[in-house]
Backbone:
């Protein structure tokens, strides 16, 4: 939504439907988007913006937020998830001051959903980024950073109790761009013809699986074996920075859509619920590469020939945009 040339909310819903995209992520309770979603049958992940976390650490404020932005639209809007905060970290200067509010806001929103009897239909979680992982190599040694354990452990403990997945934003692009000497482009783009690393008996042919399995290992190392992971964002920019090319982005999105139906070496045979970032290029974002994550142009033309067909569906993401969802027949 951070663009001055983007289609209206009803047009976006029609675009999702015409491409058979079954799920969407939005990053705040945008009334125009929610109104347009009524009766669309598109399942929604809605975000509590980071700026609202402190307020929602008060239970009555959380109750009001859920009433206003979820219950007043339910069931004509098919809420699937509520993401309470996005990429909050106690060691990131930009979010450290609000990290203390994530758990109380998460619990209060969960309690508001439970008091409405909807805890089985609408799952409440938070979206992390991979900077919370301290060790990721090999994947079986994955562990959270020591200085975020006091933050993350109670959150994932609550998710176990609530039988709710953790949301994770996983970008092989940033890992590759940050270390092209040690990470090969084929490994980041799913194009390596054979395993690049071996972790015991498990061979890793792509970085996405290695990152996701490192997160699973970190959850297990923290004692939470039953928490599943939903990949709440993944994408590749088509311009604006190193390795951000149209061909690389097309390759990444196409291969990601094919890949997530099959699981990871650590969790094989289980489709990975995955949301593509993002629906549109957004010309008002900074820095430059952030303008180029769209899988559609603002004029609603597809940027890449992606298959959101009946067997594989993909939902799209926005930061005040929307996320496209990817899933196979689960």
Residues:
């Amino acid at each position: 939504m951070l663009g001055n040339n983007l289609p209206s909310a009803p047009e976006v819903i029609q675009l999702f439907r015409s491409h058979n995209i079954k799920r969407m992520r939005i990053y705040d309770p945008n009334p125009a988007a929610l109104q347009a979603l009524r009766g669309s049958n598109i399942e929604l992940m809605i975000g509590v913006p980071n700026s609202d976390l402190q307020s929602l650490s008060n239970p009555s404020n959380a109750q009001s937020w859920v009433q206003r932005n979820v219950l007043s639209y339910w069931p004509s809007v098919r809420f699937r998830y509520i993401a309470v905060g996005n990429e909050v970290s106690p060691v990131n200067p930009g979010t450290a001051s609000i990290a203390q509010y994530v758990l109380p806001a998460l619990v209060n929103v969960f309690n508001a959903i439970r008091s409405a009897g909807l805890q089985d239909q609408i799952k409440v979680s938070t979206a992390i980024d991979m900077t919370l992982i301290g060790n990721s190599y090999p994947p079986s040694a994955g562990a959270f950073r020591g200085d975020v354990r006091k933050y993350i452990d109670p959150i994932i403990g609550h998710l176990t109790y609530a039988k709710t997945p953790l949301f994770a934003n996983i970008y092989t692009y940033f890992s590759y761009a940050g270390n092209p000497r040690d990470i090969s482009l084929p490994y980041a783009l799913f194009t390596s013809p054979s395993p690049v690393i071996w972790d015991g008996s498990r061979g890793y042919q792509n970085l996405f699986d290695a990152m996701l399995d490192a997160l699973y290992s970190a959850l297990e190392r923290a004692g939470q074996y039953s928490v599943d992971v939903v990949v709440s964002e993944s994408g590749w920019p088509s311009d604006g920075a190193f390795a951000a090319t149209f061909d690389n982005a097309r390759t990444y999105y196409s291969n990601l859509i094919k890949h997530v139906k099959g699981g990871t070496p650590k969790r094989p045979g289980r489709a990975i619920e995955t949301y593509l970032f993002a629906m549109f290029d957004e010309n008002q974002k900074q820095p430059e590469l952030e303008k180029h994550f769209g899988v559609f142009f603002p004029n609603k033309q597809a940027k890449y020939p992606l298959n959101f067909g009946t067997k594989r569906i993909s939902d799209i993401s926005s930061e005040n945009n929307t996320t496209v969802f990817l899933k196979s027949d689960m």
Q: What stands out?
A: The radius of gyration is 19 Å. The longest helix spans residues 207-221. The domain at 9-327 is CATH 3.20.20.80 (TIM Barrel).
